[in-house]
Backbone:
């Protein structure tokens, strides 16, 4: 049996030289993800606050003004305009200036005073479902609370008192929720691109063909090309976690070492995807397109943006085959919930299995499509 | 149908009935040839005729669909890895790493062949001296001119002291001086017993080879020394000879010459016409006929067929055979 990894050292060293010769690529691959973090971390707030609201208060007496104050104090609604007819109320929503329109009828105070049921019309723009959902919940809750307050003189006599307590991320800070998930996407992004590029570049140059006429073995060649990028991926992870902790003040409740350890199978997954991309793509621009294609499912079906549990069954099943699903559970688990290996070993094992499987498939395809092409 | 291969120590390559199919397309069709050690073997043919495919088969890059091949005594089907240890290969686009220096390129290929450190150092020194690369050692490969890139690529291909080198269009796109220097180097190395398998488009390069073969759409239609090919009956049919007619008015002369019965074919070469004419044709008659039509003739003299003539004649004949078989 000949050395299965022949040529590994030579290829590894050469690849390190390439990276050193091209500091711009290294710089961008490390810095651009941090910029993406800045944009997402500072720019996006998933909490729904201060929704633009237009009000038509036909009643105008004390009771109606009290109701509006309570809506304002909820922090969900920002009343930016008062109108005095139905048409203007409608127009503001159709034009997109307001998401919510509230109409208090002329007889609101009268009916309350006479112990009759008073109606309030709440128009909600349904084009953004999360805003709509929040508006329904908050207005319903305020209506219910207002009713109870009028029926019962003393609020402490409520029969059931729900006391919700958010365990992790108690302030519902968006960066805490977004950034651990983003870590998984960014790592995938950078390492897949770098690997695919390093192989496709040699294809374009013709040096790959040259290598195949030498005694270098496919595994030696692949690992020699992968490991430097595994190193870069790891450095990237360290930079992201440092940034997350000290710039965005996301508290890390679990073990950073465990996070580093569990990232290795995940990095192997993304490197293997890079090889698969390169076995298909003939040019670097083709590689970019193909790589983006592989990112989309990782972004949408991994639970990074939309919770996996709310997906239709078909996509929920698919999400089990997406490596980012497991790594996002790992990053959120370690960073937000302080989870340890006892809670996360199944995710680690799944990544290890997917990583080994993909690496074998990638090596085979590489041999078949690239060497024999 | 492939005849079994016998091992012959004087042969660098023996290929028997090689076949390579891609789907329904047969890129290499029943090709057999032998290359002796120390030869410069010129492998010619139009683009897309299967030259590179044959090289890929002999270097173990492409599995054979049929036939057998021994390279340096090793079967390419079963021993392709050992074959790769013993051969060198230079592709037509000089497969260098442009962002590495000359030294780094050499070191990389040396390590790939697992040369131990002392030998790698000695070989790099030898190659640098042989190819005159000293002034460029720390230059990036991308900054070398075409000729120097080619020398570096050749150097990288021979670091591990292969006895057989495959050069795929080594002189495509480099200047005439570098071309001449490369051939001088090839002759010197072949004097030391190294075998070269060279593909080229240049007929003058073909003339320099000790052994040439011509592949035409997957079929080998000529194989031998340049001189033996010139004497092939298809090239020089019985009862004919070749002449070179030098004239200032080649175009008119050609049009006229093609109408004269007894002239079988005529082609322009620079300021002259090469014609294949019947034995009984009198050269003075020819001169007179041309003069009578107002075409000045500087000289008419007998000529041996060039390799280009050889390949043109063989191609015509092969095409005629193909058309006949289709009809």
Residues:
């Amino acid at each position: 049996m000949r050395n299965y990894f022949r040529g590994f050292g030579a290829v590894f060293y050469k690849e390190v030289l390439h990276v050193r010769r091209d500091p711009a690529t290294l710089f961008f691959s490390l810095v651009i993800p941090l910029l993406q973090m800045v944009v997402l971390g500072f720019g996006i707030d998933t909490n729904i606050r201060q929704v633009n609201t237009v009000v038509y208060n036909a009643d105008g007496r004390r009771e109606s003004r009290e109701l509006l104050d309570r809506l304002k104090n909820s922090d969900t609604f920002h009343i930016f305009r008062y109108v005095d007819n139905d048409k203007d109320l409608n127009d503001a929503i159709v034009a997109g200036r307001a998401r919510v329109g509230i109409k208090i009828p002329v007889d609101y105070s009268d009916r309350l005073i006479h112990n009759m049921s008073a109606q309030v019309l709440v128009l909600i723009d349904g084009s953004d479902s999360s805003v709509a959902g929040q508006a329904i919940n908050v207005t319903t809750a305020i209506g219910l609370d207002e009713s109870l307050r009028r029926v019962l003189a003393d609020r402490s006599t409520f029969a059931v008192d729900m006391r919700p307590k958010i365990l992790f991320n108690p302030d519902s800070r968006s960066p805490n929720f977004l950034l651990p998930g983003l870590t998984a996407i960014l790592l995938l992004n950078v390492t897949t691109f770098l690997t695919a590029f390093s192989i496709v570049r040699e294809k374009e140059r013709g040096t790959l063909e040259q290598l195949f006429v030498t005694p270098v073995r496919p595994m030696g060649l692949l690992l020699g090309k992968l490991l430097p990028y595994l190193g870069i991926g790891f450095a990237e992870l360290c930079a992201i976690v440092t940034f997350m902790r000290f710039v965005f003040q996301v508290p890390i409740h679990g073990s950073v070492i465990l996070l580093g350890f569990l990232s290795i199978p995940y990095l192997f997954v993304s490197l293997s995807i890079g090889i698969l991309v390169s076995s298909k793509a003939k040019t670097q621009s083709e590689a970019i397109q193909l790589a983006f294609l592989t990112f989309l499912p990782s972004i949408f079906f991994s639970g990074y943006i939309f919770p996996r549990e709310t997906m239709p069954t078909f996509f929920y099943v698919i999400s089990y085959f997406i490596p980012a699903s497991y790594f996002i559970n790992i990053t959120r688990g370690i960073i937000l919930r302080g989870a340890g290996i006892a809670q996360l070993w199944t995710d680690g094992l799944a990544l290890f299995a997917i990583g080994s499987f993909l690496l074998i498939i990638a090596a085979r395809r590489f041999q078949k499509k690239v060497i024999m092409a | 149908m492939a005849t079994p291969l016998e091992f012959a120590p004087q042969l660098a390559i023996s290929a028997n009935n090689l076949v390579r199919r891609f789907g329904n397309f047969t890129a290499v069709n029943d090709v057999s040839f032998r290359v002796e050690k120390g030869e410069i073997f010129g492998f010619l043919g139009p683009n897309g005729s299967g030259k590179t495919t044959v090289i890929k088969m002999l270097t173990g890059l492409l599995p054979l669909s049929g036939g057998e091949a021994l390279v340096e005594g090793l079967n390419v089907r079963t021993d392709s890895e050992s074959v790769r240890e013993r051969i060198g290969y230079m592709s037509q686009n000089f497969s260098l790493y442009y962002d590495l220096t000359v030294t780094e390129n050499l070191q990389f290929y040396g390590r790939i062949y697992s040369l131990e450190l002392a030998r790698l150092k000695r070989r790099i020194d030898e190659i640098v001296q042989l190819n005159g690369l000293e002034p460029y050692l720390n230059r990036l490969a991308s900054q070398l001119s075409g000729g120097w890139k080619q020398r570096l690529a050749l150097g990288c291909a021979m670091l591990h002291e292969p006895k057989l080198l495959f050069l795929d269009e080594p002189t495509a796109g480099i200047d005439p001086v570098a071309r001449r220097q490369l051939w001088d180097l090839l002759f010197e190395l072949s004097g030391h017993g190294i075998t070269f398998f060279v593909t080229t488009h240049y007929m003058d390069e073909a003339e320099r080879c000790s052994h040439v073969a011509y592949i035409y759409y997957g079929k080998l239609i000529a194989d031998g020394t340049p001189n033996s090919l010139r004497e092939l009956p298809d090239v020089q049919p019985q009862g004919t000879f070749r002449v070179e007619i030098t004239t200032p008015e080649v175009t008119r002369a050609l049009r006229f010459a093609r109408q004269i019965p007894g002239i079988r074919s005529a082609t322009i070469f620079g300021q002259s016409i090469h014609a294949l004419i019947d034995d009984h044709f009198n050269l003075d008659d020819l001169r007179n006929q041309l003069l009578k039509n107002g075409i000045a003739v500087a000289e008419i003299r007998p000529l041996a067929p060039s390799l280009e003539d050889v390949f043109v004649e063989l191609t015509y004949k092969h095409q005629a055979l193909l058309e006949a078989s289709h009809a």
The radius of gyration of chain A is 28 Å. The first strand of chain A starts at residue 51 and ends at 57.
